[in-house]
Specification:
It contains no helices and 11 strands. It is mainly β. The strands form 2 sheets. Strands 2, 4, 5, 6, 9, 10 and 11 form a 7-stranded mixed beta sheet that branches. The chain has a 4-stranded antiparallel beta sheet with strand order 1-3-8-7, with no helix packed on it.
Length: 123
């Protein structure tokens, strides 16, 4: 079992930045792929970016790659999502997720999910 806990969301002004954290616990993560998704009201859950726990195979959604950065701290079992130049359309609940296996951008293929953290961007 893997437990995930996101933090770092809140109310941010447009143009600002935010760092989201996802603390992982449970089984070892050497062969896991970890990703960030987001879901705005009335919309489907959307892939933001992800990476293997080794740090390799970092991938982003094409429309977001200029402003979003995934990173991790293995010593803390934590992955991060840094977002710059926030826009009102970035308002969503942001989730981290883990799947056993190769990289994927499909939400249904992920095995474990955190509870999500709300990011609200004011204009």
């Amino acid at each position: 079992q893997v437990q995930l806990a996101e933090s770092g969301g809140g109310l941010v002004q447009a143009g600002g930045s935010v760092r989201l954290s996802c603390a992982a616990s449970g089984r070892t993560f050497g062969f896991y792929y970890m990703a960030w998704f987001r879901q705005a009201p009335g919309k489907q859950r959307e892939f933001v970016g992800g990476m293997l726990w080794s740090g390799a195979s970092t991938t982003y959604a094409d429309s977001l790659k200029d402003r979003f950065t995934c990173s991790r701290d293995p010593a803390k079992n934590t992955v991060y999502l840094d977002v710059n130049g926030l826009k009102p359309e970035d308002t969503a609940v942001y989730y981290c997720a883990v799947r056993v296996g190769t990289p994927s951008t499909t939400a249904s293929s992920f095995d474990y999910w955190g509870q999500g953290t709300q990011v609200t961007v004011s204009s």
